[in-house]
Amino acid sequence: MGFMKRILAKLTGNPNWSVLDCLFVWAGVVSAVAYVWAYRFLPLQDYPDWLFQGFVFSEALKGRLLEGYRVLLYPVPNSASTLIIGFLGLVFSPEASGKIFLSLYAVIFAAGSLYMMGSLDRARRVGFLYFVPLLYTANVFFIRGNLGYMFGLGFVFFGFGYLMRRSAEPEKVKALPLAFLTVPLFFSHALAYAAFALFAAFFAVFHFKKKLAANMLAGFAPSALLAAGYFVNHNSTLFGAMVSGVGFKATLTAVSPYFSVYPYFYPAAGPYYAFIEKTAVVSIAVSYAMMLLFVYWLAGYAIGELRRDKTALFTGLFLLAAVYFSPAFYKGMSTPGERFIFPLMWLALAHLVEDVNLARLSDRVNAALKASVFGLIALQYVFLFSYGGYVSKEISKTVEVMRSRNAGREFGAVSEVYFDYGGRYVPPAYSPYLSLLHYPMIRLPYYLSIDLKRPAPIFNTGMLYYPEEDPLADSVESVRKKKYPEQVFIMAYEGAADAIAELFEPEYRKAYQDGYVTVIEKRRRW
Fold first, then answer.
1. How far is the C-alpha of 115 from the C-alpha of 158, rounded, in Å?
2. Whole-model pTM?
3. Coil, strand or helix at 335
4. Under a CB-based contact definition with an 8 Å cutoff, are residues 58 and 71 in contact?
5. Rounded Cα–Cα distance for residues 50 and 460 (Å)
């Protein structure tokens, strides 16, 4: 453990890591990486799509771009996974490349979190707060398969920590480290980049010096040029629909699911539902404990107990406003504000490391809290491994059936989600009921498309563009009229919920009594 102690001491600036502390960190990171490699079919929602896009880009690098796709020849956010999986695909199989990318994410997320937690630690005591981020390596965005954003989170935390460590001597901020942070951030996700840019802007204002301003401008220049190239070429309408969906989320319960011990849509069903019911109180307690820590952080500014860091406070307030006032949906995607929840909470955690009251906790209490956090991590991974293994087996069966029954059919007709005409889900014999409760099930055809090197619809939100619409069914009307019975129904997000609801109105239930419809999401380019 000597090598591990040296790494953690260097990373956090705290030399007082014990062997047990090192084991806790090692176990948390290794558990996440082991989970990635434990099963072939990981139940991560959007992961198959991004894995397929990495494969398509890898084929393009080999001079074999699949028909119908276009690689956008200008910088595009949300491309980190496509780029990295694609380049890894020159050496490894597509699936191995995807798992290497996920492993890289886990390490960067943990390292960035630990670096940030140690940024203000003047007591040089390894408190329990250092270990809290390890509980969220397998966070909601990981489970959703939002690969670009989750990859960017680690860089956000490194960026926060880098500036926080230089708050006393801002002239020590250098352009090169900022450039090394912001360029990967740009390619990971626009909102991850925005979170760090906001913090950096406040840092520059509250610590203004000419040398600092010059270095920060130079550090952000490469990513700013990339962003300019994107907007010029993309003709983005990013701000066009922001007003319509704004609404205040009244309580902290709106964000508490993001800090559940069990990522929130995993515990939906299956043989582990009883386990979830029995331990739900633990998950709820953890979520609200995180919320209380955040409130305690804000209260610390009001009563003057915490060091007055205006950069963190103003960034936190702006991020909090974004969380609570952002639209529920924007261009078919879930609320943009939710992407600021983790940066916001990590700001609170890093500043609470220096909190006087927490620093005064006795060694015995601190050890007990560390053990509690580690116990929660163990509980989480016991669930993830057992449930993930169960789902992976079900997915494997489904993929094999799809392979045997649909080898000659188009992509869309492979993934079949059945409903009866009261709007209830009816699982066919060869499609497990988890396909409704586990969104990755409707992404499974991507694995077959990789094997067969066959085109498939993709999220046109990264560096690849696939303009072809499915010729079989491209509107609600074609499904209503049963023009293409038992064929795929491709629909963009806008109006999706209403359109599906209309399909189950009484006058249509009888007409569709013997039919079914498949819904596959196809995002519009924006």
1. 6
2. 0.83
3. coil
4. no
5. 11
What is the torsion angle, in degrees rounded to the nearest 10, for the CA atoms of residue 328, residue 263, residue 417 and residue 513? -70
Copy the structure tokens of residue 230: 């994107």
Q: Kindly report the average pLDDT of the chain as a whole number.
A: 76
Do 47 and 443 contact (CB within 8 A), yes or no?
A: yes
Token look-up 């790494």 returns 7
> SS3 string of 392-459?
HHHHHHHHHHHHHHCCCCCHHHHCCCCECCCCCECCCCCCCCHHHHCHHHHHCHHHHHHHHCCCCCCC
Residue scoring higher pLDDT (137 or 265): 137
Count of residues making up the chain: 526
In our burial notation (b when 16+ CB lie closer than 10 A, e otherwise), range 200-229 reads: bbbbbeebeeeebeebbeebbebbeebbee
8 Å CB contact between 413 and 406: yes
Question: Strands 70-71, 464-465: parallel, antiparallel or unpaired by DSSP?
Answer: antiparallel
Question: Is 351 within 8 Å of 312 (Cβ atoms)?
Answer: yes
Local structure of 465: helix, strand or coil? strand
Are 489 and 459 within 8 A, CB to CB? no
Three-class DSSP category at 206 = helix
Query: In degrees rounded to 5, what are phi and psi of residue 334?
Result: -65, 165
Q: Provide long-range contacts, Cβ within 8 A and 24+ apart, for 272-276.
A: 272/383, 272/386, 272/387, 272/390, 275/383, 276/383
The residue type at 432: P
For the chain, the maximum distance between any two Cα atoms, rounded to a whole number of angstroms, is 73
DSSP track, 65-98: PPTT-EE-SS--SS-HHHHHHHHHTTTS-HHHHH
Is the torsion defined by CA of 331, 337, 338, 343 positive or negative? positive
Cα–Cα distance, 504 to 501 (Å, whole number)? 6
CA atoms within 13 A on the CB side of 365: 6
155-193 pLDDT tens trace: 999 999 999 999 889 999 999 999 999 999 999 999 999
